[in-house]
Amino acid sequence: MVDAKTIKNSLTEDQIKKILNSFGASVFSETENEIIFPSLCHHIDFKNHKAKLYYYKQTKSFYCYSCSFRCTDFDEIIS
User: Fold this and answer.
1) Over 19-59, what HEC string results?
2) What is the spatial distance between Cα 39 and Cα 52, in angstroms, rounded to a whole number?
3) What's the confidence (pLDDT) of residue 62?
């Protein structure tokens, strides 16, 4: 049986982008170390807010600088 951590760690950066894009959150910018998305983790109208949801490539984790919340899984972001 495959657990959630195994799935999370196997996701590619392109898959991360596609998943967030499916919720309407396109990449705002990208560097070698991070991908920045709109803050869809807590704004219903996230397209009208600053892009402060960071995905850190090395740790495969999210951090929202709007609400100072470290999100480790997609369910924390979209719930």
Assistant:
1) HHHHCCCCCCEECCCEEEECCCCCCCCHHHCCCCEEEECCC
2) 5
3) 87
